[in-house]
Fold:
Amino acid sequence: MQTSLTRRKAVALLWASLVPMPALAASYPDRPIRFVVALAAGGPADAAARAFAPYFAEAVGQSVIVENRTGASSVIGTDAVIRATPDGYTLLFGSSSTFAVNPAVMKSLRFDVNAQLNLVGLVSYTPHVLVVRSTLPANTLAELVTLAKQQPGKLSYASSGTGGAIHLASELFKRETSTDLIHVPYRGGGPAVLGLLSGDVDVFFSDLSTTIGNIQSGRLRALAMAWPTRSSQLPDTPTFAELGYPGVVSSSWFGLAAPIETPADIVAKLHLAMTQTFANPAYQAGLRKLGNEQFTLDSDQSKAFIKGEVDKWASVAKSANIQIE
Structure:
């Protein structure tokens, strides 16, 4: 099977090499474009991709299909895009797990996303928010930290899976506040929220998009935003920096990338379509409703942001001894 796949890929690449790149770019796109989301349907990455896709399709002048290819904490889908024909028709709608968390925690990752993918641009992000169950006797971050220090190893925090972005964000919180909380991993953000609502766990570092409905209804209590600025969705919730913990900064974020050998003219067309999508008021309104924020970084700033994220999560993974084979 592997030999067959390798041969088909070689034939596809040979065919592409025989067609002049300017000719490919001039006719691009003349068929639907595929966004591969390497995480589960219904999750934050999938929601961000489906909010982005129709407006991007309008801007690029071709339909866009969102395809979920899950498995191994986004490794399966990412690898599929890396191995795809570099013609601009198979793109990765990747997440912070793809670009920063997996390289930090996976010992034997079989590819290098920074070397084998061409980042078209960062799309959007959902800041992380610290929420607690409504019955926990902590109405402020200071009260939570005090409670955790009075009962070391007694309070528990949920995550959407061991070694994921939420797990590392929670460990960053523990490190910066010198608290000891017990990790309870769930199979996804949805089950983690249910665990919090049922009282099985006490604390959850969550994508804002995952918990905003329960926060606004009062079923969960938001104590702090893990972002440099307050969220427009929760303007009354202070940031960690405001509360004395400037090092607690985290989010789930999303970017569009193509196989590394994709012609520069095609990448430029994709980037232009992305810029036009960002300027669409209807897209901006949908993004806010989702609980996401739009990135406003240029190419150099995006690369610097990703490097900073990789370095941060590598440091957290090392200090918390988190490693996945």
Remarks:
- The chain has two domains: 2-126+252-319, 127-225.
